[in-house]
Amino acid sequence: MASEKPVLYSYFRSSCSWRVRIALALKGISYDLVPVNLIKDGGQQFSAEFKALNPMQQVPALKIDGITLSQSLAIINYLEETHPNPRLLPQDPKKRAQVRMIADHIVSGIQPLQNLSVLKQMGDKKMEWAQNCITSGFQALEQILQQTAGRYCVGDEVSMADLCLVPQVANAERFKVDMGPYPTISRINKALLELEAFKISHPSRQPDTPAELRA
Amino acid sequence: MASEKPVLYSYFRSSCSWRVRIALALKGISYDLVPVNLIKDGGQQFSAEFKALNPMQQVPALKIDGITLSQSLAIINYLEETHPNPRLLPQDPKKRAQVRMIADHIVSGIQPLQNLSVLKQMGDKKMEWAQNCITSGFQALEQILQQTAGRYCVGDEVSMADLCLVPQVANAERFKVDMGPYPTISRINKALLELEAFKISHPSRQPDTPAELRA
């Protein structure tokens, strides 16, 4: 089992899926991708077949080494432990804690609030709601990054925090959030998007990217 | 700095604060507690003083070893790395991944959706909204635990997943969620509540617990 190629269940526009695609790319792990369309047929993640695979009915899910994992950071931590190079957590415990704090702030504090399932409940207020969640999260993030950042979120090494930052900025742009007040976030995002692993994992370059959104 | 006693900023009823209180208790780390009342004065977490300490304007926050950390799992991971005994992550990477998957499912997939800031927006639909979020999260969790659980969430050792489970079940009870369909969650919750670390960290036994809610 352990030698089979991992299978990633992914949706091109899912920011949580993108985090994992970046990790796989950075670590040079080749994988097969199975697209799960979160919109089509009322959401393919709700099919009985997918539910059997991942009871959370969400992407990403990764079949690897004979198990199926869900939750982007749990998957990324597993990849970090089983494929330690290049590392996505600094060696110093305090810096590791800062990486995790920033990642968790995005993964628990921002993204879930502007997730598809929440936005569905918001009707006409959808856009305003998403903008408020992201704005309030980015205000805190900008302040934190001013303490922790070097070239990237924490110092000059790419870390788990960066894997969360870039997809969240893409969400912000999709919801037309004014990025003017967040110069540090914007600068780091731009530097990261120049890296090959962030480019090839981009939503505009996935097998399930619709033709009109392709790079 | 490193030898000063840690300071935990906590609210008795915050489920995220409770997670950290359990970790501190399990690892036998003594600390000073500063209560932050999330309701009083429009929310003490929004004060300029607290914002300077934690730009995320949330509890828990932990001052420790000369830094201030926020985000419950980031704090717990830091404690795990600096105070490894007793361990809160299994040694086997696959089991560690399962622990993180369950913890993240609660921390990112359930709790943020029934958080105070979201509920404020829901007006009359507050109770129904919270119940739906928890119910849908618990359905997935029950199914996952049937694969992973021993005495506790993953096997027979207390892990980070358990630190997230118990406070989330308390939230479910507060929102009057019918726990009948979740026998595995209920059984594990009961076993954990018998442990001293879960008892002394309980919301009913905190310095800021109002008299009428005290155990």
From TrEMBL, chains A, B:
Q: Does the keyword Cytoplasm apply?
A: yes
Output the SUPFAM superfamilies linked to this UniProt entry. GST C-terminal domain-like, Thioredoxin-like
Tell me, what's a Pfam family for it? GST_C_3
Q: What CDD domains does this protein's entry cite?
A: GST_C_Zeta (cd03191), GST_N_Zeta (cd03042)
Q: Where in the cell is it found?
A: Cytoplasm
Family note: Belongs to the GST superfamily. Zeta family.
What is this protein called in UniProt? Answer: Maleylacetoacetate isomerase
Q: Which organism is it from?
A: Serinus canaria (Island canary)
